[in-house]
Specification:
It contains 8 helices and 19 strands. By secondary structure, it is α+β, with helices and mostly antiparallel strands. α4 runs parallel beside α7, α5 packs antiparallel against α6 and α6 runs antiparallel to α7.
C-alpha cells in the first residue's frame, strides 16, 4: 500500500486562535509510506519536515484519504523497482527511518508552581477579531505604555477587541510593528498606570510562566516551565503553551516580561538527536527588550497585504489537497472539481475523462495480452503529459507581490509561500517517477488497484 500525501505541516507554527500560522523558513516533508499488508517495506522520511530536498510530503503510518492498495504478491518486480527508488531518494535526503524508534522523547522535569498575582493577570488581555483570538499584554517601555502582541495574531483579523479577565476593554489608537520580528505594540487610550515591566532575559533554568488565552477559549490559563534558551532575538521555554497563547507574556516569577510566546517547532527525530532533549517539541518567544526599531503600521495597507498573503496561502492549501488525492493513484482515481484555482478545473476535467477512458480501455483489453502491454506504455506516456500540464497550471498561479512590502513579516511569509509552491513542483516530479516505475495495467487487471 502506498500512501502519498501532500501536507504543509508546520516545522515552526505560530499559535493564533483560529489556525496555525506558519513562520518563515519552516521546512516540510515529502514522504511515501510503503507497506505490504501491515508491515513497512521501506519508507521515505526527511528532516526538515513538509519536503523532498527541502520539500513536500509527510510520512504517515496508516490509511490516508483516498489511499489505494498498489502492492500485491503478484507485483514483486514492481515492488523492488519502487523500493529501489525510495532507497535511492532516502540516501540523498534523510537518515534511516529505523532510527526514529530510538528517539524516545527526553522528559524535562516539572517546573515549580508559580502563582501570578491579580495585578499581573489584569495586564494580560484576550485579543479577539473576526478570524479568531489570541493574547496580548500591557507593559511599559520607558515612559510609555503599550499593548503588545504578535503580528500574526492581528493578521486578517478585523473588528479587533482587547479585554482583560475583569472585562475591562482597551481602545487601540495606533500600532507599530517590530522591524525584525513577529511583534507589534499598540498605543491604547487610557492605559493603566501599573503595566508590566520588560526585562532582559538572564539566567537559564529559571522558572517562568506563560499566561494567556489558551486554545482561543477566552479564559486565562497559565503554564509553568523553565527558561531553557536565550538568544539575541529569541528565547526558548519548556512551558507547554498552545494555540491561542500567541502574544502571551513569558514571565519571570517576579512578573517581569522576558519575551512573548510566538511559535512551536515540531520534534526533530534525526538520529543525531537520539537520547537528547531535542527530540521533543520546542517552544519559542521573541524578546521584547531589544527591538532594533519600530515601523508605523498603516491599517489599510496592513489589511491589504495580509489579505494577499492569506489568499495565496488558501490557494496553495487547496492545491496541496488536490495533489494529495491525485498522488495516491493518478491512473484510476477521479478528482473533485470544486473550489479550485484558475485553470485547474479544466485540468481536473481532462484528468477525470482520462480516468474514465482508462477504465473503459481496460475492460476491452483484458482478453488480449498485446493490448495490455500497449496500454501500459500509453498510460505512462499520458501520465507524463498530464504532469507537464499540471506543472504548467501551477506556474501560472504566481501572485504578483507589492513592489515593496509594508512589513518584513509579510516579505518573509511570501518567500515561504514561494518555497511551498516550488516544493509542490518538485514533489510532482518525484511522484511521476514513482508512478511510471510500475505497471498500473497489470495491477488493475488483477483487481488490486
Amino acid at each position: 500500500m502506498i500512501h502519498a500525501i501532500f501536507v504543509w505541516p508546520p516545522h515552526r507554527a505560530c499559535l493564533g486562535g483560529r489556525k496555525n500560522w506558519e513562520e518563515r523558513r519552516r521546512t516540510r516533508v515529502f514522504s511515501i509510506l510503503f507497506t505490504h499488508g501491515a508491515r513497512p517495506w521501506g519508507s521515505l522520511d526527511t528532516y526538515p519536515q513538509h519536503t523532498i530536498a527541502s520539500h513536500d510530503l509527510e510520512m504517515v503510518r496508516g490509511a490516508g484519504s483516498g489511499s489505494v492498495n498498489l502492492l500485491t504478491p503478484r507485483a514483486q518486480p514492481t515492488m523492488h523497482r519502487l523500493l529501489a527508488l525510495l532507497l535511492w531518494l532516502g540516501s540523498l535526503l534523510l537518515p534511516a527511518a529505523g532510527n526514529a524508534a530510538t528517539n524516545a522523547p527526553v522528559d524535562l522535569p516539572d517546573p515549580p508552581a508559580v502563582v501570578l498575582p491579580e495585578a499581573v493577570l489584569d495586564q494580560i488581555v484576550v485579543v479577539r477579531g473576526t478570524q479568531g483570538s489570541g493574547t496580548g499584554f500591557i507593559a511599559r517601555d520607558g515612559s510609555n505604555t503599550y499593548l503588545y502582541s504578535n503580528v500574526h495574531v492581528l493578521m486578517g483579523n478585523r473588528g479587533m477587541a482587547f479585554a482583560n479577565s475583569r472585562g475591562t476593554h482597551f481602545k487601540p489608537l495606533a500600532f507599530e510593528a517590530a522591524s525584525d520580528r513577529d511583534l507589534v505594540r499598540i498605543t491604547i487610550a487610557n492605559p493603566p498606570t501599573n503595566g508590566l515591566w520588560i526585562n532582559e532575559p538572564r539566567g537559564l533554568q529559571q522558572p517562568v510562566v506563560v499566561c494567556g488565552n489558551a486554545e482561543g477559549e477566552e479564559v486565562m490559563r497559565q503554564i509553568g516551565g523553565l527558561l531553557i534558551g536565550i538568544g539575541p532575538a529569541k528565547i526558548e521555554t519548556s512551558a507547554k503553551f498552545v494555540k491561542g497563547h500567541s502574544g502571551s507574556p513569558i514571565l519571570a516569577t517576579n512578573g517581569a516580561v522576558l519575551g512573548i510566546a510566538t511559535y512551536v517547532r515540531r520534534a526533530n527525530t534525526d538520529w543525531v538527536n537520539t537520547n537528547t532533549p531535542f527530540t521533543v517539541t520546542r517552544r519559542f518567544g521573541y524578546r521584547v527588550d531589544n527591538v532594533p526599531g519600530w515601523v508605523r503600521v498603516q491599517p489599510k495597507r496592513f489589511a491589504d497585504e495580509a489579505g494577499l498573503v492569506q489568499a495565496r496561502e488558501a490557494q496553495l492549501e487547496t492545491l496541496t489537497e488536490l495533489i494529495s488525492l491525485w498522488a495516491n493513484n493518478p491512473y484510476w482515481i477521479e478528482l473533485p472539481p470544486e473550489a479550485l484555482p484558475q485553470g485547474l478545473p479544466e485540468w481536473v476535467r481532462m484528468h477525470n475523462q482520462w480516468v474514465v477512458d482508462n477504465k473503459r480501455r481496460m475492460r476491452t483489453a483484458r482478453a488480449d495480452t498485446s493490448k495490455i502491454r500497449e496500454l501500459t506504455r500509453d498510460f505512462h506516456q499520458k501520465l507524463k503529459g498530464e504532469v507537464e500540464a499540471l506543472k504548467a497550471e501551477i506556474h501560472k498561479l504566481k501572485y504578483k507581490p507589492p513592489p515593496q512590502w509594508h512589513l518584513r513579516f509579510f516579505a518573509n511569509y511570501w518567500a515561504d509561500l514561494d518555497e511551498w509552491q516550488a516544493s509542490l513542483l518538485k514533489g510532482i516530479d518525484y511522484l511521476q517517477t514513482l508512478h511510471t516505475s510500475y505497471d498500473p495495467v497489470e495491477l488493475q487487471s488483477h483487481g488490486k488497484q
